[in-house]
Amino acid sequence: MKANYITPAVTVFSEDGSIHFEEQGKVYEHLIAGGVDGILILGSIGEFFALSMEQKKELIRFAVKTIDHRVRLIAGTTSMIFDEILELSEYADQEGVDGVMVLPPYYFPISEAGMVTYFGKIAEALPQTNLYLYNFPDRTGCDITPDVTVELVKKYENIKGYKDTQAGMDHTRELIRRVKAIRPDFEIYSGFDDNFAHNILAGGDGCIAGLSNVFPRLTSDWAEAFRKEDLKRVQEIQERIDALMQIYQVGKPFVPYIKAAMQEEGILTTPKASFPFPEVTEEDRVRIRSILPEGNLDAE
Predict the structure, then answer these.
(1) Taking a C-beta distance cutoff of 8 angstroms, is the pair 173, 141 a contact?
(2) 189 forms bridges with which residues in the sheet?
(3) What CA–CA distance (Å, rounded) separates 96 from 98?
(4) DSSP secondary structure code for residue 198 in this structure
(5) Contacts for 180 with CB less than 8 Å, ≥ 6 apart
(6) What residues have CB less than 8 Å from 96, skipping those under 6 apart?
(7) Burial 254-277 (b: 16+ CB within 10 A, else e)
(8) Which residues are catalytic?
(9) Which of 27, 87, 170, 190 has the most other CB atoms within 10 Å of its CB?
(10) For residues 101 and 134, what is the distance between their CA atoms, to the nearest angstrom?
(11) What does DSSP assign to residue 298?
């Protein structure tokens, strides 16, 4: 049974707001040593929205060099400026990433026909680039529907996959059912950790989800349990993940709290996030510390 766990890696910031490349490299090494199947940079948890074009290019260069094809590398290239998507995607492809991931436009709603046109133009402009669709309706206000996806994958072979960040599985199951029927190679990932097992059992490819920043060994063990069809182990880890999902509820938005959990685990020295994300309080830390033991494999 195939199963992949890809980490949407955090971006590490220095106190002055610049990227802390030394610590960033340590994050990538931590993830690779933990056995993740791939790394996504410049996703939502990577705070792509807070970085300039030059900072994004710097991070792409650094990630390609540091990761060095030891695991798959996908770069988020979303922008509200269409030409910037093409520029950054072309740059990432030339640097050697394995694919790029793009959200639909946000702020103004977009029709299904408009969605097909939008992603179609990206796919046509980047014929040699592996393109992944990123659906996050809570943040964009619009949905890349199964109908839209079917139309796109019929037309464009370079649209390779889809990340569906939604709390439930109804939407993702319909994607899997309809899209896999015409493109069995098309990759469909869930965006929340606790949907990983359901995704695989429904015929999907796994997830691209944030807890793996903190516990890559746990999440890679989960993927391996599926590959070995060890359903007892799958269940055991599901229970741990369900408990660890409380980290997302410590505060909103969740990014600083994932970083604080990484700091508590000794992965980061600072949980600094981009402004205007909130500061993590001591009360928040107490709650995080109470949750973290669920991810400790050494305690088994």
Answers:
(1) no
(2) 163, 206
(3) 6
(4) H
(5) 186, 188, 203
(6) 64, 69, 73
(7) bbbbbbbbbbbbebbeebbbeeeb
(8) 134, 163
(9) 190
(10) 6
(11) G
Per the listing, tokens 């669709």 go with: 133
Task: Write the DSSP string, 10-59.
Answer: PPPB-TTSSB-HHHHHHHHHHHHHTT-SEEEESSTTTTGGGS-HHHHHHH
185: which 2 tokens?
């190679």
Is the Cβ–Cβ distance between 9 and 27 less than 8 Å? yes
**Inter-residue long-range contacts of 259-262, CB under 8 Å, 24+ positions, other chains counted:** 259/10, 260/284, 260/285, 260/288, 261/214, 261/288, 261/291, 261/292, 262/10, 262/27, 262/213, 262/214
For residues 213 and 217, give the distance between their C-alpha atoms in angstroms, rounded to a whole number.
Answer: 10
Q: How far apart are CA 95 and CA 77, in angstroms?
A: 13
Per-residue pLDDT in tens (0 to 9) along the chain, 300 residues: 899 999 999 999 999 999 999 999 999 999 999 999 999 999 999 999 999 999 999 999 999 999 999 999 999 999 999 999 999 999 999 999 999 999 999 988 899 999 999 999 999 999 999 999 999 999 999 999 999 999 999 999 999 999 999 999 999 999 999 999 999 999 999 999 999 999 999 999 999 999 999 999 999 999 999 999 999 999 999 999 999 999 999 999 999 999 999 999 999 998 999 999 999 999 999 999 999 999 887 655
Tokens (6 digits) for 77:
């290239």
DSSP, res 103: P
Kindly state the tokens that stand for 237.
Answer: 């880890």
